[in-house]
Amino acid sequence: MQSTAAVLSQRELQQSVPKRTTKRAKLKRIVARYWQKLMRVGVPQDHAREIAIAVVRYSHLDCRPSFKEKRLIGRYCQHLCAAGLWHLEMLLGS
To answer: What secondary structure letter does DSSP report for 21?
Structure first.
């Protein structure tokens, strides 16, 4: 049988260890942050979401944008620059 002190120290240890976030959850938070930045500089909500996803896929997952995403990136490239989300290779490819 464990002593009360041992049980308390195990609880404290479990509470002090930060919970690990999954890569997917981290990327979802980044998409949300980029989406907000794009909306602040004037990109419509639905386009901002698609562009944010494309930027995160490009920068974190090394995926090239689709044709539709390239069109949106080309259309809103000034907004991407204003939001600080541009990547030269991605902009040149659109």
So the answer is: P
Classify 42 in phi/psi space as left (phi over 0), alpha (psi -120 to 50) or beta: left
Closest Cα to residue 54, out of 38, 42, 40, 20? Answer: 38
Helical H segments across 1-94, by residue range:
4-16, 23-40, 45-61, 67-75, 77-83, 88-93
Q: What's the one-letter identity of residue 90?
A: M
pLDDT of residue 62: 87
Count of beta carbons in the 10 Å neighbourhood of residue 47: 15
Distance of CA 32 to the CA centre of its chain: 6
**Residue carrying the six token digits 């080309």:** 74
Higher pLDDT pick, 87 / 9: 87
Question: What does the alpha-carbon distance between residue 49 and residue 39 come to, in Å, rounded to a whole number?
Answer: 9
Angle at 61 between CA 39 and CA 50, to 5 degrees: 25
